[in-house]
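As a warm-up, study this chain.
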Amino acid sequence: MKCLTVFALLLVLIVVNSYASESMPPDFTSKTEIISQKLRDKGFGDDEIRVIFSDARIELYPEMLNKSGKGLNYTSRKFGLLTKKSVMRGQKVLKEHGDTFKEIEEQFGVEKEVIVAIYRVETNLGSARGNYIVFNSLLTMSVFENRRSEWATDELISLLVLCKNSNRDPFSIKGSWAGAFGLCQFIPSSYLRFAVDGNGDGNIDLFNFHDAMASIASYLRAHGWENNSPDKKKKAVWAYNHCDNYVKAVLAYARASNSSSKPSNSSSKPKMKSRRQGRGYVGVQQRYVEDTHKWVPG
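Now compare it with the structure written out below.
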């Protein structure tokens, strides 16, 4: 039996080497052995491990190792978060899914505007969910020595556990280069701990709108969200993304999209000057100023 186990592991490593990037880290084999053993500890058999690592879709992305999502200025004009068009898109989502958000607010006690704000910042209301195969992203960070290696190994194990539990193809899940996926951009361990079945169909699918929005609310509530406590709101959003700029942007967008923060009729349709561009005219775009809660040209 021991010989068969060793043979199965060697077969996995041979196949992985044949499919993965030619630019391999020097300790690739030992790193893969660690992953395989952790999978065994989670109840995976050698045949299951072999199937996973013999998949032709395995690919490493070493070029992404220096990427970072920290320090983004989400409220900058370039990002476009607080433009009037952006806020109106969020308000449209709130209106079209009013019943869903009412149910989520009643269940989790989290403001719907904050849920939509996270949805807007994370995936631009579902239009930018990421095109990386999450398995490959996490495998890359796991086997190439970097500050995320240990974290990525644990997330890779979580990904394979959630796929096994839900009978899902691990290579079918696409997301960000950092391993987050779905409309709400959960990492695998967050899925296992905080994702919920919002629509009650017996399946947790973070690419399903109701499940994703309910899961955002579930996450925030689990991290101490309280509607009457600004400090606890900030801490809960910060837990979602450890970035002060992110917290500021989410709460600013939530306030801008709240019906009580909408400009009055006299200011919602201001007289806008036009500037000539080529042979046509372009209306001056408006943006929401967080400090004054007003809309200004720009």
